[in-house]
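# step 3/5: fold
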Amino acid sequence: MRNRKRKLVDPLQFEMSIESEDLANYVPAFGWEMAPPSAAQRSSLERLGIMPDEIENAGKAKKILDRLDKRRAEGLTTPKQIRCLERYGFKHVGTWAFDDAKKLIDRVAANRWRVPPGITPCEFNPHMINQ
């Protein structure tokens, strides 16, 4: 249980990282949305890197799953990439492209999981990797 929780991202952290006001201020509108998340929703959330225990209703679970699908289609960062890079102090990681985040994580990993010299996390622009 401990390892599982460490590998998953808290939904609130994900909402704040992608700067999503509709997720942060979500209020269920229909009766089915107020029910607890289904087993299928919970397993999908867990597979995609979100901690399902923190999501209180089916409507919010559906909204998060829809947002994750949309982000994947647009080629944006995954919840695990966001959490990893924010842990090192990088800002606005939720708006980065998947490939930019992957390249930076690869550089950090190659540097023994320390921020490489010459990179200031709070000022970093992901387009600097491509140059």
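# step 4/5: annotate
Residues 79-128 form one domain.
# step 5/5: archive (pending)
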